[in-house]
Amino acid sequence: MVSVLNLSLLAEVEALSPMGSGALPACIDTQCHQDAESDVAPTCFGSENSAVSSDSDEAVVIEEAPKVQARASRLKVPSLLQRRQFGSKLSLSPSKIRMDVRPVAPVEQGSLEQYTVLEELGQGSCGIVYRALRKADKTPVALKLMRIADPEEFAAAEREYKLLRGIDHSCVVKAIDFFRYSKGAVLVMEHFDGTDLQALIGKTSHRKLGEATVASLFGQLVGALRHLHKLGVVHRDVKAENVLVSSDLRHLKLVDFNTAERVCEGGTLLDRVGTPAYMSPEVLLGEAVTEAADIWGAGLCLHLMLFGNLPADRNDFASHEDFGRALRAGGGFTPSTKSCGGSFAARAVLAKCLELDFQKRATACSVLEHTWFSASL
Ligand SMILES: Nc1ncnc2c1ncn2[C@@H]1O[C@H](COP(=O)(O)OP(=O)(O)O)[C@@H](O)[C@H]1O
Ligand SMILES: [Mg+2]
Description:
alpha+beta, Phosphorylase Kinase, domain 1, Transferase(Phosphotransferase), domain 1, 12 strands, binds adenosine-5'-diphosphate
């Protein structure tokens, strides 16, 4: 079913699309071969290029946009801010809280008219992502159209752009531009030709990938997290829907930095944000949001790739706390007992990522040191 947001944004892009909505093709069709082991790329954790940029401190002026607010208020999807503040606020020590995003290059003066909008690539709780071509040079891009109700939401959307601009890693999607449009804000990203991990697993026969492929993809995901964590950035929504994989299963990119935050070294964050099914026990129980929460999310992605499912279902529990307590108590699952399949080494890596005590959970660096990766080459 097409959501209200979908219709609203579609109306906007129809005017710009050469095809009109009736001609909007289906989402990208990605072929997935379970037996792609033989030609899988060597395990590579991705390349890191730079630290956070701090080129300029020019601020973006947030203007009042009553028309946009009025229209946006009719939309029936959670707003950006609602998503960022998902769950209850926690009362952690303010001395340990996030730092403000460092200033990055000024927002360019883009507009939707600079792009030919093509088909929808996907959507989440913040907006809809379309494939598009930059008219000037035919560069393929991905446009994330987000509805914005007020300046605070605009600032939240802009944070995603600013954070992404400061990250340069081959396994993290790159941000190109950010600007306002009549219904909200647009984040322009490099287009990654692939499908999200959740959809990929759904299309794969027996819902499983071969282990060499899994090691290669998981290495790239944790390589991206290692880079983020070195920069003091916690993604906070690492899940299969935010991981894109190329059709030949060789390349992976992490997307969706809407909930990402900077933390002081060894610090914790205040808000419980993210997706409940992928939240770690300490996040569900309101104790802490650290880099370890990203490793938990990556561990669940690994479980999904190895076994075709998640080890526990949030829907079986009445509240986040119940779910968190069940996980803490063992949750009826451990990677080595509940799931079948996967080599001993793969299970060992999984167990390191799904360690219940976040202070003992492996870091991205230590995960990547495991011999599973070199053995899977
Ligand atoms: N740069 C990109 N290239 C290709 N597809 C993308 C890109 N960014 C996002 N997508 C697709 O759009 C979906 C929604 O994007 P995402 O940033 O996760 O939005 P949300 O914040 O609403 O969850 C993703 O799950 C993915 O399928
Ligand atoms: Mg998403």
